[in-house]
Design brief:
Length: 278
């Protein structure tokens, strides 16, 4: 029995894309639970992006990923008619709008942490049992009970979140702020990645993706992907599994897109060689 490596590779690629789509649901479940504590009066349109930044961000990225897959692998050059190109560009523009909107949401969440203030007259977390929640990590909260209070923290001073009956100790506050910063940095770096990738695709369409431009693009993306890898490692150590898993899958997915662009560039060069030779 012969294994078609090309088909196996494509199957693996689309499994990764499917898992990223599943992550939209996983983030939605997490954020719905967190929103019950963050916004007890309900999530209005004015705070929608703060409540569901990861869900909106991931959903927009999944659609954008599929657009890149269509343009760099699925569609042949002759299929880029006016309506097809216009449709792809319009849908991508909408995705970019949501991605920038999500970046704003991560920034808003980070700035909201400035509203944390010391909780007065409480030196034992168990004193808050049955009334307050504890922030176990960024955007994850657990009700404090007499049974679990000691497992959360044995500190003697605590910080409360603005307008929320949620507390955390000093070390927990530092960890949460660091994770919020990683969210912002990761989102910003991904925006830079797609800017470079968009330039790559446009240059490839015009047969100008070569020489110094190709070298500069690869150098820039090496630095950007290294930063994203560091963010994934940080989440793996200090964040939750879903954040790490999502970051890992996105790196794998965009490796596929980079391979698509590489193969596209190679095919263009081969066609140019054949044309020149004839």
């Amino acid at each position: 029995m012969t294994i078609d490596r090309s088909r196996l590779f494509q199957a693996f690629k689309y499994v990764v894309y499917l898992l990223l789509a599943v992550n939209v649901y996983l983030f939605f479940v997490e954020e719905v639970l967190a929103a019950k504590t963050q916004f007890p009066n309900g999530v209005g349109l004015n705070v929608m992006i703060e409540a569901y930044a990861a869900t909106i961000d991931t959903a927009a990225w999944v659609v954008l990923l599929l657009m890149f897959e269509l343009e760099t692998y699925v569609l042949e050059d002759e299929q880029f008619t006016g309506p097809v190109t216009w449709s792809l560009h319009t849908l991508r523009a909408i995705c970019y709008g949501f991605i920038v909107y999500a970046f704003y949401g991560y920034m808003a969440n980070l700035l909201a942490l400035d509203g944390m203030t010391p909780l007065a007259n409480v030196s034992d977390l168990c004193a808050l049992a049955g009334q307050w929640s504890y922030s176990t990590t960024l955007d994850e909260y657990s009700a404090i009970t007499a049974a679990n209070c000691q497992s959360f923290s044995t500190a003697t001073s605590f910080i409360r979140f603005d307008e929320m009956k949620v507390v955390v100790d000093l070390q927990g506050q530092k960890d949460i702020i660091a994770l919020a910063w990683v969210d912002v940095i990761n989102s910003g770096v991904w925006l830079l990645v797609v800017v470079v990738l968009e330039i790559d695709v446009r240059l490839q369409e015009r047969n100008r993706y070569e020489g110094a431009v190709l070298y500069a693009s690869n150098c820039i993306k090496f630095v950007l992907y290294a930063l994203l890898f560091c963010a994934a490692v940080y989440w793996g150590i200090n964040g939750d599994f879903v954040d790490f898993w999502d970051a890992f899958l996105w790196l794998v997915a965009f490796i596929f897109i980079e391979l698509n662009v590489f193969e596209w560039h190679k095919e263009t060069q081969e066609q140019a060689t054949v044309t020149t030779g004839t």
